[in-house]
Model the fold of this input.
Amino acid sequence: FCFPTADIVARNNGGRGGTECPVCRQMPDSFSHMHMACPELDGAQSAMHNDIAEAIWTGVGEATGLPVLWPEAHTTDEDLARFIPDGLLLKERDREIHILEFARSMTDNRDAMEARAWAKRNHYHSTSLYLKRRHPGWRVYTHTLIMNVLGKVDLPRWMESMEQMGLSESKGRGVVQAAIRECVMATHRLANV
Done:
């Protein structure tokens, strides 16, 4: 993930690339820098996250027949805003609340992706406790869906989450495919900024 993108493009076109990011000209040029760290692409990186998350939540909503809520932080308290997840699925009939969190990762190492998922679960533990206190007798699940910037996922982990949310295997796979497709499309849009 740290290969110099400008060098590869230039080499493929018969020229020579530079060693600095062609966008911000502050850091070494690399795929990981452009996708996760380039300050000039910060809005585009957030948009990529949101586009992929929206593809997931739309698929889950269509498969369950329930809307996935996108909580908005109507607060200027940044510490409080950090504990608002990407989405919530409320299954009133089953008395279940599903906390939905999507994150992108720079690694395709399964252990590192699992560590990221656990970190996210731990981060939203207090949100889970709050929802359990607020809704006695309801079950609260936290789903952390991690995808690397190339679209790789831990398929068994994703399918386990889809099943817990009540999706059939085929509908769960459809959600995963939609997320991967959106990752590829978002990457293409970022490359053409």
Q: What stands out?
A: The longest strand covers residues 96-105. The beta strands are 68-69, 87-91, 96-105, 139-148. The chain has a mean pLDDT of 83. Residues 34 and 41 are 7 Å apart (CA to CA).
